[in-house]
Design goal:
This protein is α/β, with parallel strands linked by helices. Helices cover about 25% and strands about 15% of the residues. Strand 13 and strand 14 form a beta hairpin.
């Protein structure tokens, strides 16, 4: 299914502005052939569910041929589909059916590294003859040992351990910021850039609507490969996070030359009207400014929301910290396949609440309230699969853990809990597959499944469906300029109306007002007398405040008498 490029360079409001995305972790979303592994046909079978939810695009994690050492982020061929997930025909059928439902498909690019099984790396090792070795050796980063015979510098891998592995036959080390089976590409070699131009066009011609760039801050390395300043000695048995934080990462990541790659890719994507955005992993808003220059990627993920506690000042700083120059260019996400789910992170201590179930409900309510705040800010909201069901992390027994960064003695480093299979309904394995899933986990209660929640308007799923319906109905006011469109700055588009402290966070964007209670008690918020309440998260979901003193919300939609009583961990949206 070939698509002709169409110019989007002069579109004032690109399609992704104020859109809602949905991340599919492919292996765990939906299994169509009962082999225990999610696949492309599985996504296709759930397009009705995604359409009813109200999402505008799906971002699919890698489906390319892979040995699976890092579950697909070790790519052996960038222009094909792994047989585990389908084939090119299955991919094109998914894109076509999604388009029929007005859902776009965004794919994952993994340009920092390949699999060690990739033909480029195998040729670089000399396994395809001397001529091919000479051609592909410089596709990767090789260096002679240090004078003591050790690695060329002090860089550590993001998954822990040295970032260099010795190849015995040549006596040289190759660089890998992740697993040794994920050798880093040499982006200072023009031939690598030429290869990637063709890869992007291959998928764009098949209807892909955009790319999420993995490790967007790490492509180009320091030309001299200088050692990073070491801030602290690495403690014995340090976790991967602790090892990484022992260094100031001046030379291995965040090199400005990476922007040349993205400027080049943006020109290609603009020819197709495609959305180029990155895994811009920086927790400092000033760092985000560096990663997202105006002529670079169209947008990037803002990861600060995945690293905060449920505390008013932290939440406020996360929402208000990015500069006005980034307005409309941030992707807001609370969860992903790499981090514990937001309801898990935001859940109060279960012993203090009495039961783990109540604690999880508070975590889910807090996640929904944050998503309400984010949904009406400039940018793009992205939900992670199952977030709309209020899911906390799944339970994976120690003997069933598979993540390569989570050894038995460092369970907190693993990512298995956020990757457990999507619970669709009754039956074995919550309806995900008739076969044993690739990642074994405890079955979830029926009430947490999509099937059960689809029958209950006041479920978590019902609450998210209503939220996205409201967001979709009011977004035209944002894109046409009446509430601050794509041409306006964040200061012009958003007026923060809270005091800057305390348990209420609120803002206006044109005629839309949003307020959230992020403290521990109900609070009164002022809503203009003529305003219409469009959404109250506490009234829309199975909020844990139900039955406590005072109602969840003192107004229903269309009513406008007096101050509005907002339950703790809830948010309200109104239109003036």
């Amino acid at each position: 299914m070939a698509h002709s490029p169409t110019s989007a360079r002069h579109t004032p409001s690109p399609w992704w502005m104020d859109a809602v995305g949905y991340q599919v972790y492919l292996r765990s979303f939906a299994d169509s052939n009962d082999d225990g592994i999610g696949d492309l046909a599985g996504i296709r079978s759930k397009l009705g569910y995604l359409s009813d939810l109200g999402v505008d695009f799906v971002w699919i994690t890698p489906f390319y041929p892979t040995p699976g050492h890092d579950w697909g982020y070790d790519v052996a061929d960038y222009c094909d589909v792994d047989p585990l997930f389908g084939d090119l025909d299955a991919f094109e059928a998914l894109v076509a059916d999604a388009a029929d439902r007005r859902i776009r498909v965004v794919t994952d690019l993994v340009p920092n590294h390949t699999s060690s099984d990739h033909r480029w790396f195998q040729a670089a090792l000399g396994n395809a003859g001397e001529a091919e070795r000479a051609r592909y050796r410089d596709y990767y980063i090789w260096r002679d040992p240090a004078p003591d015979g050790g690695p060329p510098n002090n860089w550590v891998g993001y998954f822990g351990g040295p970032a260099w592995t010795l190849e015995p036959e040549s006596g040289q080390y190759y660089l890998h910021l992740f697993l040794p089976s994920q050798p880093d590409l040499n982006w200072r070699n023009p031939a690598v850039a030429d290869e990637w131009d063709q890869i992007l066009r291959f998928w764009l011609d098949r209807g892909v609507a955009g790319f999420r760039v993995d490790v967007a801050g790490g492509l180009v390395k320091d030309a001299e490969l200088r050692s990073n300043p070491q801030l602290l000695p690495i403690p014995p048995r340090a976790s991967r996070w602790e090892q990484w934080d022992c260094f100031e990462h001046l030379y291995d990541v965040f090199q400005p030359e990476s922007q040349d790659v993205f400027r080049r890719w943006r020109k290609i994507c603009d020819d197709y009207g495609a959305f180029l955005h990155g895994e811009t992993y920086h927790l400092d808003p000033r760092g985000m400014d560096d990663l997202l220059p105006p002529d670079g990627m169209h947008g990037g993920y803002w990861f600060a929301p995945m690293h905060i506690d449920w505390e008013p000042n932290e939440i406020r700083r996360t929402l208000r910290g990015p500069s006005s120059g980034l307005a409309g260019r941030l992707l807001w996400a609370m969860s992903s396949h790499d981090m514990p789910r937001a309801p898990t992170r935001f859940a109060p201590d279960s012993s203090a609440e009495g039961t783990a179930g109540v604690s999880r409900r508070w975590g889910a309510a807090r996640t929904l309230a944050f998503n309400v705040l984010a949904a009406f800010l400039p940018g793009t909201l992205v939900l992670y699969q199952g977030e709309e069901l209020g899911l906390a992390d799944g339970e994976v027994a120690a003997e069933d853990k598979l993540d390569p960064v989570g050894p038995d003695d460092d369970v907190s480093a693993g990512r298995d809990g956020c990757r457990t299979p999507m619970p669709w309904g009754d039956g074995p394995h919550n309806g995900f597959s008739a076969a044993e899933p690739w990642l074994r986990s405890a079955e979830r209660p029926v009430g947490e499944t999509a099937g059960a929640q689809s029958q209950d308007e006041r479920s978590w799923l019902g609450a998210y469906r209503t939220l996205l319906d409201v967001q979709q109905r009011v977004r035209s006011a944002f894109s046409n300029g009446s509430a601050g469109g794509a041409e306006t700055s964040g200061d012009e588009a958003v007026e923060w109306t809270d005091s800057g402290r305390g348990p209420v966070i609120s803002y206006r964007r044109g005629r839309i007002g949003v307020a959230a209670s992020v403290g521990g008690t109900s609070v009164e918020v002022e809503i203009p007398a003529a305003a219409t309440v469009l959404y109250d998260s506490a009234s829309a979901c199975p909020h844990p405040h139900d039955g406590a003193a005072g109602p969840c919300g003192s107004r229903g939609p269309g009513q406008s008498n007096g101050p509005y009583l907002l339950a703790p961990a809830s948010a309200v949206v109104w239109q003036e």
